[in-house]
Every structure is written in C-alpha cells, then in structure tokens.
C-alpha cells in the first residue's frame, strides 16, 4: 500500500520508451498560436493579458539589461504553470515532481545569472560574498558561509518545487483513498472527507500556480543581484 502511493511519481513509459518528453511538450500545444490580426478571440486576448501581467511583474525590478531575460523567464513560467496544473488532473503525470528535472531547470539558469554577474561586474559579484564592515577574524568564516549559501540556491529551487508538489499529490491521494474506504461503513465521515478533499484540491491549484511563480521570481531576483 505504501509503495502504491508513490507509483504516481514514476516516470511513465510505453514499451520501454520514456514518455516524459511528451509530458513536457504537450502543455505547449494547449496555447493558441499567435497571429497578426488586430482582433482575436477571447482566449488569445486573455492569454496576451496574462503574459503582459507576468512580464510586468517580473521585469519591473530589473534594469534594461535584465529585460533580455523576459522571454526565457516568461516561457519558463508558462511551462511550469501549465505542467503543475495539468498534473492535478486524474491519471496524469507531473514532471515537476521529479527532483532531477527541477534541478535541470534550476541549475543552468542560476549559473547563467551568476556568470552574467561575474562577466559584467566581477568586483560587485564577488563583493556579495563578504558583507561590508566585517571584522577581520570573521572574514574566512563569512566567505565560506556566503559561498555555501550561494551554491545551495539551485538546490533550494529544485527541492522547494518538488517537495510542495509531491506533498500536495500525496495528501490528495491519501484523502481520496480514505473517502472511498469509509463510504460503505461511515458515509457521514466520508462526506466530510469529500468536502476536505475539494478544499484541498482548490488549495493545490493555488499552490501549483504560486510555486511556478516563486520559482521564476527567485531566478529574477538572482538576476537582479548580478546586473
């Protein structure tokens, strides 16, 4: 029984062929393709409004040099948001519950922001490792601590996203299993757990959106430090 709860996090395969690539590419097919018409349908208008809102939220704290990252950050935001929301549907697989995938997204982008700072302003980027006014005896310890906190950032990004989504999926499965099990013997308690399940599902929809936004927002903050 314990193992069956974690079967939903196993990468799907067909005839030994992994299907995780299809899981990553399928969400992009749900968005309507852009066109050159001035007047479009409501879905395209809503899509453009949402893209504009997210881009404004992410790019406002950055200067003009950081605006080059708008397409990358917006694409990542839409990808994570769509994957997280589709993963809440029954009999679906959520690639963002895999730590390896989240680290594969977090580490290159974090390293790109770090490399940008080291290339454009190396003294300021390295100056973040040693706060101003630090006593001389504490300099080696503080440099080691700041370096560790800097290197652990991509790991924190990946673990945060994985842990939140995995915990939500497990809670939904546990409560839904309890609801079905209690239905024949205690229908009143089963009805109560059904209400809890609906509220938890709404909460998980919010968590799926918030975690996608937090992932990209932290990357934009790391970028802001290095430009």
UniProtKB/TrEMBL annotation:
GO molecular function, one term: proton-transporting ATP synthase activity, rotational mechanism
Family matches, as CDD domains: ATP-synt_Fo_a_6
Entry's localization field: Mitochondrion inner membrane
Gene3D superfamilies named among the record's database cross-references: ATP synthase, F0 complex, subunit A
Residues annotated as transmembrane: 69-89, 101-118, 195-223
Gene Ontology CC entries for this record: mitochondrial inner membrane; proton-transporting ATP synthase complex
Membrane topology, record value: Multi-pass membrane protein
Residues of the signal peptide: none
Keyword Transmembrane helix: yes
InterPro entries reported for this sequence: ATP_synth_F0_asu, ATP_synth_F0_asu_AS, ATP_synth_F0_asu_bact/mt, F0_ATP_A_sf
Catalytic activity: H(+)(in) = H(+)(out)
Main localization of the protein described in the UniProt heading: mitochondrion
Keywords assigned: ATP synthesis, CF(0), Hydrogen ion transport, Ion transport, Membrane, Mitochondrion, Mitochondrion inner membrane, Transmembrane, Transmembrane helix, Transport
Subunit structure: Component of the ATP synthase complex composed at least of ATP5F1A/subunit alpha, ATP5F1B/subunit beta, ATP5MC1/subunit c (homooctomer), MT-ATP6/subunit a, MT-ATP8/subunit 8, ATP5ME/subunit e, ATP5MF/subunit f, ATP5MG/subunit g, ATP5MK/subunit k, ATP5MJ/subunit j, ATP5F1C/subunit gamma, ATP5F1D/subunit delta, ATP5F1E/subunit epsilon, ATP5PF/subunit F6, ATP5PB/subunit b, ATP5PD/subunit d, ATP5PO/subunit OSCP.
Entry-linked NCBIfam families: ATP_synt_6_or_A
Family named by the database record: Belongs to the ATPase A chain family.
The protein's name: ATP synthase subunit a
């Amino acid at each position: 029984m314990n193992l069956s709860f974690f079967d939903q996090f196993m990468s799907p395969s067909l005839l030994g062929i992994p299907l995780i690539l299809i899981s990553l590419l399928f969400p992009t097919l749900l968005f309507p393709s852009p066109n050159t018409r001035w007047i479009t349908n409501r879905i395209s208008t809503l899509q453009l409004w949402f893209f504009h809102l997210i881009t404004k939220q992410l790019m406002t704290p950055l200067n003009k040099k950081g605006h080059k990252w708008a397409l990358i950050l917006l694409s990542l935001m839409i990808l994570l948001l769509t994957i997280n929301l589709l993963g809440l549907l029954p009999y679906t697989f959520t690639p963002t519950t895999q730590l390896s995938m989240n680290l594969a997204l977090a580490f290159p982008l974090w390293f790109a922001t770090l490399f940008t700072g080291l290339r454009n302003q190396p003294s300021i980027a390295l100056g973040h490792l040693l706060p101003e006014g630090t006593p001389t005896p504490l300099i080696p310890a503080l440099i080691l601590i700041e370096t560790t906190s800097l290197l652990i950032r991509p790991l924190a990004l990946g673990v945060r996203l994985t842990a939140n989504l995995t915990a939500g999926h497990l809670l939904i499965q546990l409560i839904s299993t309890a609801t079905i099990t209690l239905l024949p013997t205690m229908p009143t308690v089963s009805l109560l757990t059904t209400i809890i399940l609906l509220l938890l599902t709404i909460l998980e929809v919010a968590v799926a959106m918030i975690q996608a936004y937090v992932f990209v927002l932290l990357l934009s903050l790391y970028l802001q430090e290095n430009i």
